[in-house]
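Notebook, bench 3.
Goal today: get a predicted structure for TetR family transcriptional regulator from Actinocorallia herbida so we can plan the truncation constructs. The sequence was checked against the plasmid map this morning, with no discrepancies at the termini. Length recorded as 197 residues. Pasting the sequence as submitted so the record is complete.
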Amino acid sequence: MAHEGDGDPGRAAPRRRADARRNERTLLDAAAAIFVISGVEAPIRDIAARAGVGVGTIYRHFPTRADLIIAVYRHQVESCAEAGPALLASSASPHAALARWVHLFVDFLVTKHGLAAVLQSDEAGFEALHAYFIDRLVPVCSDLLRAAADAAEIRSDVDAYTLMRGIGNLCIGAETDLRYDPRRLVDLLIEGLRRPR
């Protein structure tokens, strides 16, 4: 006679793991969105409200603010990395894909600038995260630039690391000055990559 809980134990565990991953992604998406708007010191209750969960749920997943911020950082790096190929496949042109990807990158950078203050006491941890960011995102940006150059939409002498560094410099201060939106300058920069007609 079958009892509740009997059956194939391998079926329930993967489903629970998939649900847990999906729930964690929802939390991280909500935290990233709030951090972009309000900075990394935003109230946890705002993140919980956006995610549609209780504050306790966030603390169960991420016991400290630093834990949450680091998880958001890694989540955003992975989202940016995965977005590059997807945008190339779905955009009207490689230049349009590059522009859309750069906007995701700007959102990430606004959050990233708040990370340094949170991790002041863990310089090695911050350096490891920065290396992870470079290793994951420079190749994605390189692919986007190469596709746009191969389509004769932009100049071919643009280096991904230099472009990303320049975009990063344009984003400095955006998290503390509500009047400054770096996206306008970044748009001008990306438009300036176009080949002269």
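Residues 9-38 form the longest helix (30 residues). The radius of gyration is 20 Å.
Flagging this for group meeting.
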